[in-house]
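Worked Example 4.2. Read the sequence first, then its structure tokens.
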Amino acid sequence: MTYRMDEIDRRIVHALMEDARNTSAPMIAEGLNVSAGTVRNRIDRLEEAGIIRGYTATIDFERAGGRLTSLYMCTVPAAERERLALAAQSIPGVINVRVLMAGRRDLQVVAVGNDTRDLREIARSLSELDIRIEDEELVQTEIRSPYAAFGPNDVSRSKEETGLVTLGDGTEVFEVAVAEAAPIAGASLEAAREDGTLPEQVILISIERDGRIVQPEDSTVVEADDVVTLIPQAVDTDEALAAFLDPDASE
């Protein structure tokens, strides 16, 4: 089953890809205008879903004793890809194995050795597994960066707006983080509708608060940092979201 990531999830993943070691839940929360508890719960869910699979250090092996890093581009039978990938991973010196979808060179193996003799031994071990090495190259530099599509967007609305999903029938569903200075913050839904802060046509589906889901009722008080899922229905989107955003943020 595919896990549907919203904007908060994507921004969390982007921050962790950028620098997981020096990034804390409160730091991410500040940038998203949600609570640190919400960020921690989201990270737990992303780990459970297998999206965040671990946290590793990026090593410069050349500086670590002048070691050599080699990329082996290999071809294996399609039916054997997964098995041979696991077998290749078990070879001493292999640090990464990538399985491609189809075609030749469908297995890429990255390995580290003290010298060319070590790398030749790794190549021999791969061949003994019936992995055909098509080519091999020494890796000079590897540059990593977070996935840009998961990063902050340059949009006209304020950063508290967190996501949009369009259903099959064209209905737009928004997720929005409630700003501290939002008109609705601290008010019940009933009071917000009565004084016109929240248009009657706006349908609230759920409220996420510190990782818990709160079902909206008339007596429910909306709090800063809540993540609200809503359908604007017959109301202009900006008007529907205005109750949850900082009125000064767009000025």
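Now turn to a second chain, presented in exactly the same format:
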Amino acid sequence: MTRKKIQIKKIDNTSARQVSFSKRRRGLFKKAFELSILCDAEIALMVFSATGKFFEYSNSSIEQVIERRNLHPKNLDTFSQPSVELQLDSAMHAMLNKEIAEKTRELRRTRGEDLQGLNMEELEKLEKLIEGSLCRVIETKGEKILKEADALKSKEQQLIEENQRLKQRLMNLSKGQGHLLEQGQSSDSMVTNISSTSANPRQDCDNVCSFLTLGLPFPD
């Protein structure tokens, strides 16, 4: 009885597909092992499942097999030919170097260097370029000067106002001290008058007694 030939196509059932993957993976690794023993071959297998799991087999080392593959003369010929990306990078690098050289030359000419190879038209263009740059520099410098002058004026006004406030405070303090001094002098005058009045209390008492005696008639 012959085995039924299986149609090679994707298995729709997830469980059946996983079971088939496990069986065939083990069979594949077994065949690789047998091939390495029977034929003294160096084999490396790498397999990723549908779920992203990684499986590998090698009778020596996968890294060694990959390195040996890269060092094979056939692959070395392929590596010696630059890829499209490398060619594009080289072209971009050459273009950037050319642009840098041109900008460096222009910068040196704006400083008055390397002018011998320029004709009259190129010199006139360079002159206009320098004049335009100089005008922009002068304009920017003028704006900076005006801003600094405005800042200094504002600071000067603040100092003047602060000076006026300090003067006002000094005047208020001077007035307060003068008022206190006047009050002190008035108090001293009152004390002096009281002291002079009370200097001879006995005489004052005699005067009062005489007044009282003269003012009352003697009884019969």
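Notes for the reader: Helices lie at 14-39, 62-70, 73-80, 84-110, 120-197, 201-215. Strands lie at 44-48, 54-58.
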